[in-house]
Amino acid sequence: MHRAGQVVAEVLDTMREQVAPGVTTAMLNETAESIIRGHNAIPSFLGYPPGSVHPFPASICASVNEELVHGIPGPRVLQEGDIVSIDVGAILDGYHGDAAITLPVGEISPDAQRLLEVTEAALYEGIAAAKAGYRSGDVSAAIQAYVEGHGYNVVREYTGHGIGRKMHEEPQVPNHGLRGQGVRLRKGMTIALEPMVLVGARHVRTLDDHWAVVSCDGKLNAHFEHTIAITDGEAEILTRREA
Ligand code: MG
Predict the structure, then answer these.
(1) I need a labelling partner for 225 at 20 to 30 A (CA). Which of 21, 120, 121, 238 fits?
(2) Domain count across the chain
């Protein structure tokens, strides 16, 4: 899982450098796929879920502005002032890594910048609460309290998740919940935490492409995610690049 996480981390670091006005989301996808394949890893989003009538057609999700998650990369050209969420998953030697960041495209508005900062900080609030002996609800509640304390909403329909030999395993770790509820976290568990934060109302819908999830009111959204391993102390972040 360490090695799969490092492939994902390398992709996201490269995205930080490549995202700029004039770049298409298809170009980002090509870069991501070549890095993943260069490590003899498999892009886990491509063709997901197996056997589906509408499998995901790319190696990253690229979700711009009002798109929350699951945006399909394509000819869309990133514009100055946009924000773009990049979500990437890779399988190496049978184990998965999964992480996401939301990046500014050139200069962005102070409101958009604040949304990115709050969403990323909410992820770290969740990670800080994810320790052996605590419950999944403690993590969910920490994320929700931080986000709502800053005047934003969390998405209810999509959640963090256990991860390992499959991309999505038990337990689900929602971005809302109650302290003391849910599954007890144990040392060695690996989970993906992923706050999805809306500036406006928390209602979302899926576009006709069967994938992209957007806010119903068209307002901005952001998404950050890490795959972590539970320890007795601070969780280990597997999708952060090691020096
Ligand atoms: Mg995930």
Answers:
(1) 21
(2) 1
Ligand 1 center to residue 190 CA distance, Å? 12
CATH code of the domain covering residue 66: 3.90.230.10
Nearby residues for ligand 1 (ion, Cβ within 5 Å): 98, 192
Range(s) of the domain holding residue 15: 2-237
- Dig out the tokens for 171 from the structure: 């337990």
DSSP structure class, residue 184: B
This model's pTM is above 0.85: yes
Q: Supply 55's token pair.
A: 């499998």
How do residues 155-192 score in pLDDT, each as one tens digit?
A: 999 999 999 999 999 999 999 999 999 999 999 999 99
Could you give the CA distance from residue 138 to residue 149 in angstroms, rounded to a whole number? Answer: 16
pLDDT in tens, 107-141: 999 999 999 999 999 999 999 999 999 999 999 99
Q: What is the whole-number distance in angstroms between the Cα of residue 35 and the centre of ligand 1?
A: 19
Q: Does the residue 124 lie in any domain?
A: yes
CA of 151 to the centre of ligand 1 (A): 24
- Report CA(111)–ligand 1 centroid distance (Å): 26
